[in-house]
């Protein structure tokens, strides 16, 4: 298995897990870009959000639901947060197992580019 996030799902690589459901996993980014930076993934391997949304829309919804619950648990819902999917090389995606970045805990300013 050469997918980093599949290896985290399998427990082969350690991660700080903040929430796990039957189909999704949320864990802290190893190099946080904000005071709170959590990655939310489906346990099943999909390359990117477009593939996930078209191939398994229900699972895509479960990823969003897990992200929303973690946002609440991390205390981000009052001041707000950013939820984003980098997609493909031009989108800045480096790990090709779809993941939502949940960022918050400080003003993030305008959209990053
Ligand atoms: P991308 O650029 O693909 O949207 O984001 C990949 C994210 O994965 C980056 O924010 C990076 O810091 C994070 N990351 C890379 N390797 C690891 C790892 O081994 N463990 C964790 N927890 N995060 C990782
Ligand atoms: Zn994977």
From TrEMBL:
Record-given protein name: Histidine triad (HIT) family protein
HIT domain location: 4-113
Motif range (Histidine triad motif): 97-101
Alphabetized Pfam families for the sequence: HIT
PANTHER family: HISTIDINE TRIAD HIT PROTEIN (PTHR23089)
């Amino acid at each position: 298995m050469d997918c980093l996030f599949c290896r985290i799902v399998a427990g082969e690589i350690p991660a700080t897990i903040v929430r796990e459901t039957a189909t999704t996993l949320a864990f802290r980014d190893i190099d946080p870009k904000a005071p709170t930076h959590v990655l939310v993934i489906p346990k099943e391997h999909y390359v990117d959000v477009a593939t996930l949304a078209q191939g398994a829309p229900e699972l895509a919804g479960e990823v969003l639901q897990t992200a929303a619950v973690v946002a609440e648990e991390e205390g981000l819902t009052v001041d707000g947060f950013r939820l984003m999917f980098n997609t493909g090389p031009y989108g800045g995606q480096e790990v090709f197992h779809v993941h939502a970045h949940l960022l918050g805990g400080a003003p993030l300013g305008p959209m990053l580019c």
